[in-house]
Amino acid sequence: MAEVYRDDLGIPHIRATDAGALAEAQGEVTARDRGWQIEIDRLRAAGRLSELIGEAGLAWDVFARRARLDDTARKALAGTDAETRAFVARYAAGVRRGMTEAGGDAAEFRTLDEIFGGARPLEPWADHDPLGVLHVAHALFSTFPLLLWRQHVADTLGDAWVDVFAGYGDGGDETQPSSGSNAWALHGSRTDSGMPLLAGDPHRIFELPGVYQQVRLACDEFDVVGLAFPGVPGIAHFGHTGDAAWGVTNAIAHAVDVFRERLRPVAGGYEALGPGGWRPIDVERTVVRVRGGRGVEVEALETERGTVVTDLRPDGGELVAWSIRMPARANADLGAGALLGLLRARTADDVVAAFSGWVDPVNRVLAADRTGMVLSATVGTTPERARSERRLPLDAATTLPAADRGGASHRAVADVAVDANERPSDAAIDLGWAYPSPHRADRIRVLLDDQRPSSVDGFLPIWGDTASGSVAALLAVLPSDALPPRAAAARNRLAAWDGRMDAASAVAGTFAAWRAALVRRVAAHPALRALHRPHGFGAVFDPWLGVTGQVAAALARLLEHPALRDDAPVLVAAALDDAADAGSWGTTHRLLPLHVLAEVPGGADPGAGLDVPLSGDGDTVRCAGSTPGVTDRAWRGSVARWAWDLADRENSLWSVPFGAAGDPASPHFADQLAAWTDVRPVRVLTDWTRLRADTPTGAA
Questions:
Q1: What is the edge-to-edge ordering of all strands in the sheet holding 12-15?
Q2: Which of 22, 44, 181, 449 has the fewest CB atoms found within 10 Å of its own CB?
Q3: Could you tell me where the DSSP H helices lie in 214-337?
Q4: How far is CA 85 from the centre of its chain?
């Protein structure tokens, strides 16, 4: 039987005799704490979310079935090594028990039963479901939806506009990819203890309950603290084993090829045109059952290149669609073989070796150990493509699938390392096409050099830094000539501003209001009218193909474009007038926790009372990103903060935006919000005598 302990924040500390019993206990505890959350993700992976939440889940279910996420997870479990397979299966067994004992009674399930007028019994988890949850966490985390956006730009405005929106090749001002994270490492020569320090914060959607679960996993082989994906065994992205520690950021790599497919109907199915001519494709027809509505039939098509994930477009007597080749599907490997290796890591080299089997997404890893070694590595699988082949979807009729590049390349760090999704200076690990602005990485380096932090406590000002990277480029377009009084007053306030996006700052509020108004005016400009045509790829891709959001990311470049340059002064002045009465930044820049129940008509939003004002912005180190021109509410940003001290693990720090529990009625549902908002992470606690015993699990 495994033992469960809790600290004052309700964080689970689990102790068992061996790795298998520990995995089972982790699954059971996670089901108790996060039953609603992990069931949602399991159904997402299976393309069955609509069975639970109705029509609100339909767009996702169509994509999941087209991409064959569940089938990929099944094949990945079957193809992994026996020890990993047993580890994952034991976790699923624990989830089954935990859902039966507690997780299946989550209040959200009862709310849905009331909305739809009848109960929907939950089905037991299958052994492969944890890998489905791992897959679903990354299925749309790569850059491939942006290739569809660039295709839409090329189709509507012309090929030359692709580089304008992506920021490619214009002196490092790239801004298009929005996913990201911060991470930095200090060699022991920079610290009080003489041992390395690692720190960072991953940037993802502010999902409620939180996307990461603080947890401790201990058995006779290892004792690890870190941030786990609820529904997935082990600790993948951020962990400290006592002797070694690691953290990751997204490498913004081109990991998924997109192909423009030509299809033609034939008896019983379709054929696709490839380099070898017309070939039959695999067709799987299923019906998505929609709670409270009619079922929807989905055709899942798979060519020799990959799964067709978009709607089909008529093109003469043929059809056009876009397929994706995910290495995870092509190789039936989700990288689960890394999970046990990370838990067992004793050195930085062990961490990198474990990550050599990682697949998706491609990550940059910072790892360190108590010998003083600090390593920087790039891990994951990408297709061997020239940079020019990463810009737009490939022509399926003339292009063969590429060989995969995997493994882990690494280098030793002798002083400081910073990763913040910027384009790497080393061409060998430049695996993407467009990258976020280098501002966050440059800013962290400046802060590390100026402040010289030598302990984890010195990292708080870095996490909390609100200096914007996009302000300078936008303030450069402020007019210097005479303006009407309201616009002139706004211009003058902005011209004297320090560029910090603090919640209490009135000038930051003016800037944000001016930027939003300018984005809306530019998006409505006649030069971009064609861009507003329906993209036709499918509803699940709407967030990536929203014109206003993409205009916001490229705003400064668009104002300089010949098609808009002459109108820019009028647009800028009018937007200044629009912003003249704006309040402080925190008035509108408030947390937007996204809970699935809020998407269901009649469902109460458990995050409705958590809309606290936030400092920071999408391109500040203190990441709290909104969509200028659409909403100032922050829907993505730092979903955890972590700092690993290799000299003393209990000196390490961590925090999450909400809490350890998924139950809105629990005192630990959002008890970390205030400290997270104020950038006050807490110490990691590992002394068993200072923890309180909880209900033991049934794991043997």
A1: 408-412, 374-379, 363-369, 244-250, 238-240, 223-228, 213-218, 12-15, 3-6, 692-693
A2: 449
A3: 327-330
A4: 26
For residue 261, what are the β-bridge partners? 321
Distances in whole angstroms, Cα of residue 558 to Cα of each of 165, 385, 629: 8, 29, 15
pTM comes to: 0.95
Q: What is the pLDDT of residues 22-35, one digit of tens each?
A: 999 999 999 999 99
Average pLDDT over residues 431-441: 92
Question: Which residues lie closer than 8 Å to 155 by C-beta, 6 or more apart?
Answer: none
Q: Is the pLDDT of residue 170 over 50?
A: no
Rounded Cα–Cα distance for residues 422 and 409 (Å): 17
Tokens of 49: 């979310």
Supply φ then ψ for residue 385, to 5 degrees: -125, 140
Instruction: Give Cα separations from 572 to 32, 495, 619 (angstroms).
Output: 53, 14, 21
Give per-residue pLDDT as tens, 223-239: 999 999 999 999 999 99
Nearest-angstrom CA–CA distance, 360 and 167: 25
Cis status, amide bond into 209, omega within 30 of 0: yes
Beta bridge partners of 257: 325
Structure tokens at 367: 């790892």
Q: Where are the beta strands (DSSP E) in 230-340?
A: 238-240, 244-250, 257-266, 269-274, 277-280, 282-288, 296-302, 307-308, 313-315, 318-325
All residues at 6 or more sequence positions from 187 whose CB lies less than 8 Å from its CB, including other chains: 196, 372, 374, 413, 414, 415, 416
pLDDT value at residue 142: 82
- Cα separation of 457 and 615, whole Å? 20
SS3 486: helix
The pLDDT of residue 317: 87
Q: What is the DSSP letter of 423?
A: P
Tell me which residue of 357, 343, 377 sits closest to 217, measured CA to CA.
343
Q: Which two tokens stand for residue 222?
A: 């290892």
How far is CA 389 from each of CA 303, 401, 572, 585, rounded to the nearest angstrom?
20, 12, 37, 41
Which pair of structure tokens corresponds to residue 567?
């109108």
Residue position matching structure tokens 């005016």 = 521
Which of 257, 274, 275, 261 is CA-nearest to residue 383?
Answer: 257
- Evaluate whether 639 touches 591 at the Cβ level (below 8 Å): no
> How many other C-beta atoms are found inside a 10 Å radius of the C-beta of residue 484?
12
131-166 exposure pattern, b = at least 16 Cβ within 10 A, e = fewer: bbbbbbbbbbbbbbbbbbbbbbbbebbeeebbbbbb
